[in-house]
Structure formats: structure tokens, C-alpha cells
Amino acid sequence: MGNKASKNTVNLDTASRLDVICRRGDTFSLVLDFNQGMPVDGWRMEVRENDTDDSGSPTIASTDFSFVVDAGAVALSKLTITATSSTMAGVNSGLYVYDLQNTSNGVVKTYLYGTFKINEDVTIA
Hints:
This protein has a single domain, classed as Immunoglobulins (Immunoglobulin-like), CATH 2.60.40. It is built from 1 helix and 8 strands; from the N terminus they run ββββββαββ. Strands 1, 2, 4, 7 and 8 form a 5-stranded mixed β-sheet that branches. Strands 3-6-5 form a 3-stranded antiparallel β-sheet.
């Protein structure tokens, strides 16, 4: 009887899936509490047609979102992501994808990813 080969795996993808549903023309505000200290700067989030669409402009660019880190369950654990109603009014309803990354201190880490569904609205301000 010889040695059995064992399967070893290391998974460096620590991102969590969180699907988002929002409404076209409404102010977008997502509050996340990570329950651990988070970087204050370097946040990025893009919304795109699909997860392989990296050649053109995003549907919603990272610069269209604002990112604020403040106290939550612990110091600097709560991240609030906001986009204005005018930004959200400029995007067609539909199903998109997104991810949320931080690029502080020369390290890129993806925290969240998933679908980004924008429901149509009747009244657009």
C-alpha cells in the first residue's frame, strides 16, 4: 500500500457575496458594519453590465459613490456608501454586478461582490 495523495487547497478569496436591490432615481445609501476596524480611505465600488466587462466605462463609477467610515459595533467598523438620486436616475433599471474593494497601503482587498439590481421607478425627481 503506497502513500495516498492528499488534496490541499488554500482559498485566498475572502470576499463575501451580498446582492443589492435598489430603486432607480432614489438616493442610494448602504450601511455596513464589519464588526472590526476598517481602513478609512481607499474604498472603491463599481457597478458594471457583467463581471467580465472591464474594457469600458462602468455603469456606475467608483467616483459616483461616497464612502464614510465611522464608529459602529467597534471603532471605525461602519462603512456608509452613498450615491445621489441624480446618479441613480441616470442609470437604466436592470441587473448588473458590483464589487467593493479597498486599496489602502498598497494592498487591494475585495470585501463584497454580487448582483446589483436596479428596479424601475415611476416618479424620477
